[in-house]
Each structure stands twice: as structure tokens, then as C-alpha cells.
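Entry 14. Ran structure prediction on the chain below.
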Amino acid sequence: MRPRVVIAGAGVICSLGAGMQEFERALYSGASGIAPSTLLGGDSVAAEVRDFNPQPWLGNKGIRALDRSARLLCVAAHMALGDLDLIPPEGLESDPNLGLICATMFGGLHSIVSFDWSGLVDGPTYVNPMEFPNTVINSPAGQAAIKHRLGGVNSTVCAGLASGLYAMHYAEQFLRFGRAQILLAGGVEELCEESYLGSLKTGMASPTGTPRPFAADRDGTILGEGSALWVMATEETARERGLRPWLEINGFGSGHDAANITHYQVKAEGATAAIRQALESAEIGPEQVSAIIAGASGNRAGDAMEQQALRNVFKERLEKIPVCAPKAAIGETLGASGAFAALIAGLALTRQSVPPTAGFADATRAASGLRLSAEPQPFQGEFALVNAFSCDGNNAALVLGVTD
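Output, C-alpha cells:
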């Protein structure tokens, strides 16, 4: 019998707030973190962590060397570990039983661009060598391990918008095979001028500044940022360490259907395969799924693909399953989006209530055939489905369940 992998804690920081209580309260109130950006300036709109200051969590020591993405990840890690008293005391060696699997799409993109631009314009002899460590994509994970003395496995997963769910599955496999005892798993993405301009030039951004997932008049998404992490362990290890299991990872599925690096496959063959594989590995049928946390962002083709995949799997029952599209509130957090969606699914199972979809209008339900709402939706059930589908062909789905 394979070991059960459970969730014992979490840390989160994003445009809706810092910490699980603040995040949950804002999420279930229907609040949106999308607003004019103080970080980017001008007419820009984003879901940013406003007035971000890591000092209350991390102190002053060593934070000057961290860029924005590393700071966000370190704060989420501090929350997740601190709540469970897992941070090794000062003066002790790093804990070889604690590790980190981090998902990201771009890592410290601003650091990478700034370093390269300085080298091109000023010449390689004038670049600041202290900035180089932030230019590798696994820098946030490495910096978080140094800051919190995580001596176990340390990996970074990059798989487009599906990265967060892939990271959680990767951590799950390490734990099942006994290659780790306790792992932080999730993702981080920073908001910066480079990613914002990229979203404009590729036509990804909503010109109206309002993402409307699944709506007939949707016109694009809005970038967000933040970090969401789970504390994962086998059920046996969790109980030995005095950790209370919160949720269980029951199944994971993936499917790849890339045809173009910037276009979704609207037939949804890969997305459909990912959902069916997740249900099969969880050993449940579509009729046992009680809630869906969607990856929809307001992208016309991406949302249409997810709608088609859900119809392929759940057929006429789809209209009876409560759905939340959290990117309407927290924006498109790219590589971290799957981690945020999974965290929200965990809250939904715990409360037996799916959170509202920010800015939802009744016309969206009629147009999409999905049970979305501007209010929390109570339900009774054990399993939630989490989707993360990417325009580069990476499609992932996760099934979460309540623990016994």
C-alpha cells in the first residue's frame, strides 16, 4: 500500500494579503487584489503585493541580497514553517529532513534583465558580481533554503502555467519513495516591468483592466504575483512530528498537446487527458468531485479550452459542481498559479464552501454553463479538482481530498 501524502500547513502572500487568515478572509469576501499598480506606475493595472516589506518576517539580516521573487518566497516559507515550529533554531546546522520544491515561470526576471543589460551597455567588467546569484532561475529556492536552513532536497520546476501543480506532484513522489521527510512545495512569481510589457506585447493583458474568467465578453488577463507553499509529508511522518494532517493528495494527471508556444489547443485533448488521469490515479469517478478550482484567467482561447475539457469529463453533471476562478481576484501568477489554486481548493474542502469568483456576473454562468457565483457556494463532498493549463501545451490536474 502506497504511503499517504498529506498537507500539514501552508504559507501565502499575494495581492489579497499575507498569511492564511488574511488571505482566506479576503478571498471569501469576494475581494479583488487587482488595482492600479504602484510598482509599475503609469496606467498599469496589476494584482501586486502592495507596500511589500519582508522585514517583519525575515528581519534585516541578509535581505539586501534578495530580489523581489526571493523575498516573496522566503516570506511564504517563513509563514509555513513558523506556524508549525519547523524553523531550525539559530546556531544549529541546516535540517537535512526539510526540503523545498519551488515552481516558477520566470524566476527573478527583473534581476536577469538588469544584469544582462548592464553587461551589454556598460561592459562585463562593470556588472555587479553580487547580483549574479539572482540571475539563475533556481535562485529563489536556493535563497529560501539558505535563509531557513533547509538542508534537504532543493529543486525548481518550470512548466509554464502548470508549474505549481507539477512541483507539488514532484514533492509528492519524493515523499512516497522515502527520499524526503518534510517538503515545502508550491511556487513564486514576481511582478516586474519586463513581464508586464511582455503581457501587453503578446496580447495577453486585458485592455479593460478587468479579467472576467469564462465570461462571453472576456478580453484577457491581468498579471499578479506572490508565493504559496504547502508543508507536505507522509501521514506517518506528520504524526511522528506532531503535525496535524489537513488534506491529502489523492491524484495527479498531466497531458501535453503543444501546437504553438503561444496558443491553446481548443479541442482540449491534453487538458481532458490530465483531468481523467488525475481522477484515475485518485481512484475516483467524475461523480465524486464536489468542487472545481479552475485555471481560467480571462484568456479567450484558454478559458474555452478549459470549458471544453470540463465538459468532456463531467458532461451534464458539470452545471451542478460549484466552480471558482480565483485569477479574477489574484491575477495571473504564472508559475505560481497552480499552487494558489491548490491552496484555495484546500480551503474549500476545509470549509465545505467554494469561494466567490470576484467580479462574477450572472450572465457568465449562462454563457459558460459553469456553476460560478459572486457568493460562497456550500457543498458536501470529499474531493476537489484543481486545474492548471498552459498555452505552451503543459496541462496538469490535481485531486485533493479531506483526511480521515
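DSSP finds 13 helices and 15 strands in the chain. Will compare against last week's run tomorrow.
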